[in-house]
Design goal:
binds adenosine-5'-triphosphate; Metal_Ion_Import_ABC; transport; ATP hydrolysis activity
C-alpha cells in the first residue's frame, strides 16, 4: 500500500524525518508513535501529498481520492460558520464536486453517518456549538462518508472522554475488518497495545516497525528519546542513505 524509499520530509530544506525505508502492506491497523517532535504529523502530511519529499521517494498504491485525512483537532477552525450537515457532507466531495447541492438522498446518508457515530439529532447544529468529543464524532461521520481505502488520523483521541474514545475505536475496528488501511498517530501506549496490531516508532528516523508487542518496548522508547535529543534541528538535508550510514 505504501513504500518509503530513503524518504526525507521537512520544512525549508531542513529535514523533520529522514532516511525512512519501509513497506506498509494494505489492510494494516497501524499506530504511529514517538516522542513530541518525532515527525509523526510530518509523515502523515507527506503521505497526504501536502509535503513533497526533500529526498527519496514515497510510493502510494492507492489513488489520492482514496485517502482520507483527519488533522489534529487543534488545527480545525471551530468558528467556521457551517452546520454539522455541511461538515459531514464534505465527505461526499468526490460525488458532489465543489459546488454540488445536497439532495435528499445525500441528506439521508449524512443522517445515517451521524447515527453510526452516535450524533443523531445534531444535523442542524452549528459546529461552533459542539463539544470537543461531539466535534470528533462529527469528523468521524465525515470519514464514514468518504469511504476511503487509506485513512490517516492525527491524534484522533486527544481530549475526548473514554466513552467517545471506545465508540470511535470500535468504528476503526470495523473499518479494519473491511480491509481498509488505517494509520493513526497516538500518544497512549496502553491504547496502542490493546487496539493496534502493528506499530511504527518514529524519532526523526525509524526506530522500530512491526507487531506492536515487539515495537513498544522500554528499550525502543529509550532509543527513540536518545535519537530525538541528539537530532540537530537546523541541519540541512544530508545526501546520505541509511545503507551508507550502516
Ligand atoms: N509547518 C512547519 N514549519 C516548520 N517546521 C515544522 C512545521 N511543522 C512541524 N515542524 C517541525 O518538524 C518537526 C516534527 O514535527 P511534527 O509535528 O511532525 O512532530 P510530531 O511527532 O507530530 O510531534 P507532536 O507529538 O508534538 O505532535 C518539529 O521539529 C517541528 O517543529
Amino acid at each position: 500500500m505504501l513504500r518509503f524509499d530513503n524518504l526525507t520530509l521537512g520544512y525549508d530544506r531542513h529535514p523533520a524525518v529522514h532516511h525512512l525505508n519501509l513497506d506498509i502492506p494494505a489492510g494494516q491497523l497501524l499506530a504511529i508513535v514517538g516522542p513530541n517532535g518525532a515527525g509523526k504529523s510530518t509523515l502523515l502530511k507527506g503521505i497526504m501529498g501536502k509535503l513533497k519529499p526533500l529526498q527519496g521517494q514515497l510510493q502510494l498504491n492507492v489513488a489520492r481520492e482514496q485517502i482520507a485525512y483527519l488533522p489534529q483537532q487543534s488545527r480545525i477552525d471551530r468558528q467556521f460558520p457551517i452546520s454539522v450537515t455541511e461538515l459531514v457532507g464534505m465527505g461526499l466531495w468526490r460525488e458532489l464536486g465543489s459546488f454540488g447541492r445536497l439532495t435528499k438522498g445525500h441528506r439521508h446518508r449524512i443522517e445515517h453517518a451521524l447515527e453510526a457515530v452516535g450524533m443523531q439529532g445534531f444535523a442542524a447544529r452549528p459546529i461552533a456549538s459542539l463539544s470537543g468529543g461531539q466535534l470528533q464524532r462529527t469528523l468521524f461521520a465525515r470519514l464514514y462518508l468518504q469511504n476511503a481505502q487509506l485513512i490517516l488520523l492525527d491524534e484522533p483521541f486527544n481530549a475526548i472522554d473514554s466513552r467517545t474514545c471506545q465508540d470511535l475505536l470500535q468504528l476503526l475496528q470495523h473499518w479494519h475488518q473491511q480491509g481498509r488501511t488505517i494509520l493513526a498517530v497516538l500518544h497512549d501506549n496502553e491504547q496502542v497495545r490493546h487496539h493496534f496490531p502493528h506499530s511504527l516508532l518514529l524519532a526523526r528516523q525509524l526506530v522500530a516497525y512491526g507487531q506492536t508487542a515487539d515495537v513498544i518496548t522500554p528499550e525502543n522508547w529509550q532509543r527513540a528519546r536518545h535519537q530525538i535529543e541528539s537530532f540537530d534541528e537546523h541541519a540541512p538535508v544530508c545526501h546520505q542513505s541509511e545503507k551508507d550510514i550502516a
